[in-house]
Amino acid sequence: MMKWRVLLEQDEETEEWAVWCPELPGCASAGETQEEALANIREAIELYLQPDPLKLPSEVIMREVTV
After folding, report:
1. CATH code of the domain containing 66
2. Boundaries of domain holding 12
């Protein structure tokens, strides 16, 4: 199991919690409680790390380079 550092911060006005993972750009979530925010970021990290078939190369071309 991989471990990721997350930052958890409470909004002073709404008292809701924001949480994000600095090592995974754009991976963030929130929740009404700390527990909910942490559960949500766990799910967000799992989804972030899933391979995206649209981003995978459809063809790999190899060529030999001689110097």
Report:
1. 3.30.160.250
2. 1-67
Q: What is the pLDDT of residue 53?
A: 63
The pTM assigned to this predicted structure is 0.73
Q: 17-44, pLDDT tens digit by residue?
A: 999 999 999 999 999 999 999 999 999 9
**For the chain, how many structural domains are there in total?**
1
- Measured in degrees and rounded to the nearest 5, phi and psi for residue 62 equal -115, 140
> For residues 28 and 41, is the Cβ–Cβ distance under 8 A?
yes
Instruction: Report CA-CA distances (Å) from 52 to 5, 7, 17, 27.
Output: 23, 25, 28, 15
